[in-house]
């Protein structure tokens, strides 16, 4: 088996543990079972993130080595990152309906359809965040970081909008409700009372 085949199998196995849901769980990452039982919950979260980031970085490095012609990290650009993201789509598990599909925009389709499976936007967004950090941790300069390029940001935005419409899901973050301005109200009432007292004294 050549390196390309083994790479494909590695990606397929890493995706097999992921479930499809409307909360947009990461389709690329698999659960990490290497966390020590004695670590705290905060330490476990950090360990899972670091382990996943290392796996993602190794996967991208393997992709560069399998590239034709092979690519060095120093010559990697935003265009190569986009190529990598599109390559990962073949291992996606999120159904993205086409505009001609009767379930287009339906968050819970009542029946199967032949629409393609893709990597969920949230998966790609989280992946790019990890790779962007790993690039700089491995000696890359922030100003040359291909994972932070404008082309990559625009691509992620395009994927988010397309999947939001196709799946009938909003990816907008919920705005936190601001607490009522009690202090302002109390200070204002105090000022009003003071003015009232001034009038009475006059």
UniProtKB/TrEMBL annotation:
Biased amino acid composition, Low complexity: 1-47
Pfam families to which the protein is assigned, alphabetical: ALOG_dom
Domain ALOG, chain residue ranges per copy: 48-175
Chain segments carrying region Disordered: 1-50, 166-202
Protein origin, superkingdom: Eukaryota
Family: Belongs to the plant homeotic and developmental regulators ALOG protein family.
Protein's name in the database: ALOG domain-containing protein
Native source organism of the sequence: Penstemon smallii
């Amino acid at each position: 088996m050549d390196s390309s085949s083994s790479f494909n199998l590695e990606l397929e196995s890493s995706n097999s543990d992921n479930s499809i849901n409307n909360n947009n769980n990461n389709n690329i990452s698999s659960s990490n079972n290497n966390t020590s039982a004695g670590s705290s919950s905060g330490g476990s979260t950090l360990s899972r993130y670091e382990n996943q980031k290392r796996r993602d970085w190794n996967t991208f490095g393997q992709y560069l080595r399998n590239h034709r012609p092979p690519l060095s990290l120093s010559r990697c650009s935003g265009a190569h990152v986009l190529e990598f993201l599109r390559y990962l789509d073949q291992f996606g598990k999120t159904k993205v309906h086409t505009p001609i599909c009767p379930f287009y925009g339906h968050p819970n389709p009542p029946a199967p359809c032949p629409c393609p499976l893709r990597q969920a936007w949230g998966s790609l967004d989280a992946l790019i965040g990890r790779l962007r950090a790993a690039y700089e941790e491995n000696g890359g300069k922030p100003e040359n970081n291909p994972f932070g390029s404008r082309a990559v940001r625009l691509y992620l935005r395009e994927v988010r909008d397309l999947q939001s419409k196709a799946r009938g899901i909003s990816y907008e973050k919920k705005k936190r409700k601001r607490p009522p301005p009690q202090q302002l109200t109390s200070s204002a009432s105090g000022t009003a009372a003071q003015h009232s007292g001034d009038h009475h004294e006059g």
